[in-house]
Amino acid sequence: MGRAPCCSKVGLHRGPWTPREDALLTKYIQAHGEGQWRSLPKRAGLLRCGKSCRLRWMNYLRPDIKRGNISPEEDDLIIRMHSLLGNRWSLIAGRLPGRTDNEIKNYWNTHLSKKLRNQGTDPKTHHKLTVPPEKKKGKKKNKQKNETKKGSSEKTLVYLPKAVRVKALSCVPRTESTFTLDSNSGSASTSQEKVQSPEEEAREVNMVWGVGSDGDNGEVGIFFGEDHDLVYSSSYVESHSDNVHTDHGTLEKLYEEYLQLLKDEEKPADELDSFAQSLLV
DNA sequence: AAATACACCAACCGCGTAGGT
DNA sequence: TACCTACGCGGTTGGTGTATT
């Protein structure tokens, strides 16, 4: 695989951006739009690599970025999304307008993981910790850095298939359906009235889906479309061409499996883990 | 006041993958 | 089919500010 040499190229600026560079980048994007990151620096008169430009724009310069403190509501949403998605920061950020994946990732690592630990919850698994949270005793140098390095061998389990990119189906209208499930009765319902064969539906629907539970009201399910608390919003779909598109039958199968697991709360953890493995493509 | 530890976050790095040729 | 480019993502680093000793 040929990989772009990127920032290692000699002569390119690195490190913090200057106001002048910010202005050049902003001006260029306002005039020509985003994209073509590789050639953008040259055309914008910047001595930066395209990656660096993209990052600066996405995380800092974009006009729709919301700056300032993260609200308790956002806090709560991040925690709940993380329990469902794991470290899928871009997906989580997609549910928080104006927030960037980098910001959420940083916020999680510096605030929320600590907060959860103090509440007796493992921030990686969202399960109750068996041992009480470690009291701060003395100062440890680079505690956080050591933790992240150590933690890298211990992957977060994600009960969701890894997002895959699909071709945009621009020729067909997007339909939406929501799929909710009462965890007590186990019954599922869909808001979509249009009757389609699975093949038709798989072909026509740009499906963005997830499997999860709403910790507050006990609602669980696989969610499609928009306007459900745990669903990827349509705005996400529109702003990300890499939406998830998968086979209808597979979805149903996964949904059934997940439902079965939810019904049986006594399932050993390793069985859940193997289920998660099966979801990870 | 100085030294040290810690917290925060912008930026970098490397990998996976879509899409073009 | 193989190769290459560009992009997006998550993990990690390092500079800087703040708190503590």
UniProtKB/TrEMBL annotation:
InterPro entries noted in UniProt: Homeodomain-like_sf (IPR009057), Myb_dom (IPR017930), Myb_TF_plants (IPR015495), SANT/Myb (IPR001005)
Signal peptide: none
GO cellular component: nucleus
PROSITE patterns (alphabetical): HTH_MYB, MYB_LIKE
Compositionally biased residues, Basic and acidic residues: 144-153
SMART domains from the UniProt entry: SANT (SM00717)
Domain spans labelled Myb-like: 9-61, 62-112
Pfam families: Myb_DNA-binding
Domain HTH myb-type: 9-61, 62-116
Compositional bias per record (Polar residues), positions renumbered to this chain: 177-195
Location of region: Disordered: 115-154, 177-201
MF (Gene Ontology): DNA binding
Localization terms from the record: Nucleus
Assigned keywords, A-Z: DNA-binding, Nucleus, Transcription, Transcription regulation
Family annotation (Gene3D superfamilies): Homeodomain-like (1.10.10.60)
Superkingdom classification of source: Eukaryota
Name the UniProt record assigns to this protein: Uncharacterized protein
